[in-house]
Design brief:
The protein is of the alpha/beta class. The protein has one domain: Purple Acid Phosphatase, chain A, domain 2, CATH 3.60.21. The chain is about 30% helix and about 30% strand. It is built from eight helices and twelve strands. Helix 2 links the parallel strand 2 and strand 3. Helix 2 packs across helix 5 and helix 3 packs across helix 4. The protein is elongated, with a radius of gyration of 19 Å.
Length: about 280
Amino acid sequence: MKTKFALISDVHGNLPALKAVLEDIKNEEDVSSILCAGDIVGYNPFPNEVAEIIRREKIDSVLGNHDKAFITGDTSWFNQSASRAVHWSRNNASRDTIDLILDLPKEISKGLDEKNEDLETSITITHGSPSSINEYVFPRTISLKLRGMLEEVGSDMLVLGHTHIPMVKNFENGVIINPGSVGQPRDGDERSSYCILYVEKTEKLEENISERWEVINQEKKDENTQTKISLQKLAKNPKYKISMQIKIKRIEYNIKEVISKISSVDLPQNLGERLKYGK
C-alpha cells in the first residue's frame, strides 16, 4: 500500500517555472496528485495562465498571503514592489482567476489512503504557520516551536510555504516540510523548488522499529535533488511499518522569458532581476 504526490508552493504567477516543474513531475512515476501551499498569484506577470493550470491539473491549494491581498486589495503589509504586483494582478485578472482564488481554503488537513487502505499517515497544509498566514517559519526557527506546531495540527506532516526557502525538519512526532518556491526562490539558487513525497505501508521485516518517526537515511542524490530523507515508524498493527521518503528537487526554467514579460508590462523591473539570483 503506497501513495506518491508532489508538493509545490509560491508559484506567484510564474508560468515558465510552473510548466517546468509540472514537466518534471510527469517524469516521476505514479504521482497521484499535486498539493500547493499557497500564493498562486503576485510578483510575476502570468496570473491567469497559472490559475488556469492550477484548475486544469486539479491542484489542491490553500490561500497564501498574496492570494489574500489579491482578494481584499489590502497590501499594507507589503513592500512597494510586492504591492504594485498585487494591484497589477488584480487589474489584469480574469473572472475565472478571481473565482479560483476566492475559493481557496486557509488549511487542508486529511489522512492518506490508497484504494481505501489506510496508510496511517496524515497531512496538514497551510501557508505561513498554523496560527497565521503571515508568519515566517524558517529553517532557523527553534525546534521547540516547530514541535509545538506539529502538536497543534495533530498531523504526521505539516506543509508550509511563504518563506520561499525549502526545508525539511523531522521530529519524533512528525515532519515539517517547505517545498520551496516554484516562482521566486530565495535561497540563492535560481532554480524552481518543489517536493516529492512518498508514503508506504509494508510488512515489517526488521526488529526494533520505533513507534515514533525516526530517520533511517539522509542523502543528496544528484545535482537536481537538494535533499532526500527517509523515515519510518511502526504501524498500529506491529506486523507492519510506515515508511516516508521526502525529496526536494530543483528545476531550471526560462527566467529570461519572465524578465521579458515583466519588462513589457507595468511591473517593477527588480522583480525580474531578482529571479536571476534566487533572491
